[in-house]
Design goal:
Blueprint lengths: L1 H12 L3 H10 L10 H18 L3 E5 L14 E6 L2 H10 L6 E5 L3 H4 L5 E7 L8 H13 L1 E9 L19 H8 L3 E7 L8 E7 L11
Parallel strand pairs: 1-2, 1-4, 2-3, 4-5
Antiparallel strand pairs: 5-7, 6-7
Length: about 220
């Protein structure tokens, strides 16, 4: 009973995913445990291998967070977007020495939302934090519309139902259902299961007619 009551109180205090993440970063907190330790190593290994196999050059990440994960991955040309201006400023300061990396607030769409610019668009540990339906829909549309060849998602792909989420800023979704309904020119090329049970997995989509990462020479 107490646990359910605390969950209700947290939900009432929650004022939206955008405000939550801006406040979190403004308080000096991080993107979460997924950007550090064994989870970060697993993600970096997969992405560095994929970049080598696909030879993708221009990369867009929707939800760059605090940039901790970014330091492990050798992107040739990278644009990072985040809903939190504080996170964007933190990343810009951390990578000020690297001209291959640029960062923009999600609201500054004129700088980054340009079709046919990117070879690969990325979503890492973001989708299950998109609590609002309209935010999820817009995010998924950008993720697939802005890439010419590859989309990589690192997320859970399940819907446990209402009332089962551990925190108000978490909402697990079957995002693959959205892809099936709205991204018919894309196909799932490969799924990389996480060796740690219960954590997100990788889903690599390619635009139909594009060779998959597994078909490319290393």
């Amino acid at each position: 009973m107490l646990r359910r009551l605390l969950g209700t109180v947290r939900s009432l205090l929650f004022r939206g995913s955008g405000r939550y993440w801006e406040r979190r970063y403004a308080q000096g907190r991080t993107s979460g445990s997924g950007s550090y330790g064994s989870s970060a190593a697993f993600k970096a290994g997969f992405l560095n291998d994929l970049l080598g196999r696909t030879r993708a050059q221009r990369v867009l990440e929707l939800g760059c967070g605090d940039g901790a994960q970014l330091a492990r991955i050798a992107y040739p040309d990278y644009v990072g977007i985040d809903i939190s201006p504080t996170a964007v400023a933190r990343c810009a300061a951390s990578f000020a020495h690297d001209a291959r990396k640029r960062f923009y607030a999600a609201s500054a769409r004129e700088h980054w939302a340009v079709g046919d610019r990117y070879d690969l668009s990325l979503s890492l540990d973001v989708i299950y934090h998109l609590v609002e339906d309209e935010v999820f829909e817009a995010y998924m549309a950008d993720l697939f519309a802005l890439s010419r060849q590859h989309v990589v998602i690192y997320s859970t792909n399940r819907d446990p139902g209402p009332g089962s989420e551990p925190a108000p800023h978490v909402r697990h979704r079957r995002f693959a259902d959205w892809v099936e309904r709205h991204a018919g020119d894309w196909a799932l090329a490969h799924t990389e299961r996480n060796p740690e049970a219960g954590l997100p997995d990788f889903y690599h989509y390619t635009r139909r007619g594009t060779a998959t990462a597994l078909d490319q020479p290393a």
